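[#protein-structures] MJ: dropping 5-histidylcysteine sulfoxide synthase here for a structure pass
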Amino acid sequence: MASWTNKKNSPVEAERHFHHSNSRELFHQRIPTLKAGDAKQKMREIRDYVLNTMELYGKVFESVAAEEGFFVHPVHKLRHPLIFYYGHTACFYINKLRAAGLSEPINPRFEEIFAVGVDEMSWDDLNEEHYNWPTVGEVTEYRLAVRDHVDEMLSSGRYKLNLPLTFENSTLNMDNSFWWVMLMCSEHERIHVETASVHVRELPMRFINSAMSCFWKRCEEVNSKAPVNELIEVFGDKVHVGRQPDSSVYGWDCDYSDGNYVIDVPAFKASKYLVSNAEFMSFMKADGYNTQRYWDEEGWKWVLWRKPQHPWFWVRDESRPDGYALRLQAELIDLPWNWPCELNNLEAHAFCRFKSEEWGKNIRMLTEAEWLLLWDRYVGKDQMDWDKAPGNLNLEHFQSSCPVNKFKQGPFYDIVGNAWQHCETKVYPYPGYKVHPFYDDFSMPTFDGRHACMKGGAWVSSGNEATRDARFAFRRHFFQYIGLRYVEGGPTNEERYCGSVLGMDPEVDIMTDAGFRESVDGIPNGCVKIAEYCMAQFKAHARVEPKRALDFACGAGRVSFELSALFSQVVGSDFTARYLIPAYAMLERGKCTYSTLESSSLQRVAKMAEASNYSWDSNRKRVTFFQSDPTNLHSHMKDFSLIVCWNALERSSAPAAIPLHMLSRLEEGGLLVIECQYEWVEGGPSARENPGETSLPHKGFAEEEIYNLLGAESAVE
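AK: finished. structure tokens for 5-histidylcysteine sulfoxide synthase:
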């Protein structure tokens, strides 16, 4: 791995590892602008940005001193060991290039095990029995191989950069697709610079390389006293919400609005500072962690589960002057009382209830729109136009938090930077929201009313994260570098925005309606017919017991649930997590909601399917769901008695590989059922729609040709 000198890598190491011939800053980067300029210079800028991001991410893991540290399970058990995240971002490059039809696999095994498991979603497979992790050395070599592959593509001149490059034209042709994927992957890796550094921070100190404290250079300004917080009045105004469709920088799907989205923000009062460690101590002295009235229902359940007595990154240490230390990336320091207190959303909400009781006022967290108003009024200049970051942001000032009264913006401090700020608002789709075809499940699964927004960025936030319109959200019990700016204001109704999800994903709505409606125009449910046919064929032809079934391209899960009548274990799987949302809702909560378009009124109408109305309700816990690639299934997805693969070949960019791969996961004597329209081509749907752009125009494969792909009579009956 590369070495470092202060904040710059040595030229020798930079050239050897990242093909740069001169020393350059790992910090202080600017997100590339994409509106105009010299295309060749911009291509070099993007290349430097991508390689810089890869190198910075590698630095996060240099803080781990022993290989064992990569395989230690997080104490909260909510995520994979670090080894997963070490390989994940490199794997992401290859999988997104493949999704765009631009690359072949480099290491199919790694591109399967490192593919999914970022947010704490139900389809993230955290069962460690399903993984045989490679060594750190093997993953390092894989990362270097991916780096070389990506750099060759960036430097080859094969892909022309057409400016402006926007979300809307990012799939117009292979050139645009390539450059958008490069930006997507580098911004994804920058997100993980932040989240993986939290994982390192959670490791026991015995696994930490303390020498890395010279790289993660912390702020030396610590004080046993913190400024006394106060509320400052903010007059109301309208704010434009969302990234503009013609934005000059990369954005995630949830960033964008239609360009005309405006919210009228009433007047409010906001705290001058982020809540400091000292201010939060008043909550602890009031026995806040053991006082139920400060917590909402979800928060109190978390308290009973985790039994917290202090914030997550505080360490009780009686040898310290005030009895506490603060865990940083590579060291423990005396708790700095004037730094922001890092909390999860549940703790932030409880603190606001405590403060409301103490002051006799309605104290709450910011809304997303209130934060935007503060930014517009007192910051006003985005990353692309900075001379220097206006706050402790983008790794430009420190590689840690700093005092809450150091970076002033208007009458406030830390509107941007130092620590993210919790919001009352749950993340929701803005008007004009569209999924991106190369990452169609980035945001949609989080529009569930359970992922709370955070705004402003932290010291480590960079790239897209450090822009006005960045939108990120976590489950309320998650810990990141997030603090609290509280507000005195009227009651909010932020839940109203969650209703905007209705009809937001018509494809999933249609799939769900088709799955759970008993008939359409008098025609019996097709999913039920498929399941009945497969079970009948299994009983007639299989030479094994009905133990384990796979339903690929399961969508909303109806076939999977129907198969549970015969099979003791059923695995439903699909290409994208978007399709699994209703399946998991049905599995976990016994019901799922969706919408249909009424033909008479052309209005979206909410619908609900309930498991109690179906014969398989008592069996539904036999079913599990995983996101997976039908040409590279998770390694634990094997030894199936029955495999049902339907509507998958037409949706895959490599359909010819699916039949034989499915056959390899079938136990001897089992039954494989493949259903398709015989309209698939190599390259996937885009190649079928634009036949002139594919070099492999396989058309209309007949049943006999699928039989041959399976190995004909030597492999199947």
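MJ: nice. The chain has a mean pLDDT of 89.
AK: one more thing. Residues 509 and 681 are 26 Å apart (CA to CA).
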